[in-house]
Hints:
The chain is mainly alpha-helical and 81 residues long. The chain has helices at 4-14, 24-39, 43-57, 69-80. The protein has one domain (4-80). It has four helices and no strands. Helix 1 runs antiparallel to helix 2.
Amino acid sequence: MITFKTSVIRFKRSASDWLTEDDLPALVALEAIARKLDEDMTPQLLAQYGLTYRNLLARKPKAGADEDELEKALREAVAEQ
């Protein structure tokens, strides 16, 4: 069975091309909630995890949407550091 912590790691890896620094607070919250859920799953934590995850997922660019070339270049430059 996969853990919540592992699922967050996989999510971050798969979303690394579109997540930005603006997403860091939500990612930190998601990681903290995941650690707690792996220890003790409560309905409140599970609901908060789902809300945080869906909010991050909603930031994913729509397929076929025009991407700003400058934004893409900046994001790639930051990722290389």
